[in-house]
Specification:
The chain is mostly beta strands and 215 residues long. It is 14% helix and 37% strand.
């Protein structure tokens, strides 16, 4: 009798464990880990993380090459849970080039890029980074049954030696109702451009994409 009870316990335990394993949702990503990370930057990637974006340019206008790295948890496809307010956040690192050829971490922000499942059923919204002469942008896009894009731009302030939110541009697209084959398939129905006049002074390290206020 005792053996039967033990057997049933083991059976139900493994059955529940197997069911839970089967129910783990795998999030689709459009941002695979990059394999060509600059060797001088690899020490800035903590254990359990990998880079999904690497961009070079002059971030602080000193004519030295700087980098931005966007990282992700290696497990985010299985462990991120935005719906339950438990997203696996993606750190964004500003790495400044030094005269000796090394790099220095200026700032790290875990709230500047959307998580893998922040786009819901439409997938991973993160689309990339751009840098140009003291400006850098973090770009997000969704396409599928729903179409939108969001470009968040920061500008370097030489006096304060820091980067501040410069503009926030959001565009939502809908299907064009026109039957003209020469017309664009998608047209914007929402086009919101916010600047410092709208959100005030927000430094990069305090910026929070998950907050409506931006910080």
């Amino acid at each position: 009798m005792a053996k039967s009870i033990v057997f049933l316990y083991i059976f139900f335990y493994f059955n529940i464990a197997f069911s839970q394993q089967k129910s783990v949702k795998i999030h689709e990503t459009f941002n695979e880990a990059i394999t060509n990370v600059n060797v001088k930057l690899q020490s800035f990637i903590p254990k359990g993380y990998e880079a999904i974006a690497q961009k070079s340019g002059d971030l602080n206008l000193d004519k030295l090459e700087d980098y931005i790295l966007v990282l992700r948890k290696k497990t985010e496809e299985k462990t991120s849970n935005y719906n339950d307010n438990k997203p696996d956040k993606r750190p964004v690192l500003l790495l400044l080039g030094q005269k000796n050829g090394s790099f220095k971490l200026a700032y790290k922000n875990e709230n500047a890029a959307y998580c893998i499942d922040c786009g819901g059923v439409f997938g991973d919204p993160f689309d990339g980074i751009s840098i140009k002469n003291g400006y850098f942008s973090i770009e997000h896009r969704i396409s599928g049954g729903h179409h939108w894009e969001q470009i968040i731009t920061f500008k370097f302030d030489k006096v304060k030696n820091n980067w501040f939110l410069y503009k926030h541009h959001f565009i939502n697209y809908i299907l064009n109702p026109s039957s003209d084959p020469n017309e664009e398939a998608l047209i914007p129905d929402v086009d919101k451009l916010k600047t410092v006049k709208d959100f005030g002074e927000i430094s990069f390290e305090k910026f929070n994409i998950y907050s409506q206020r931006g910080y």
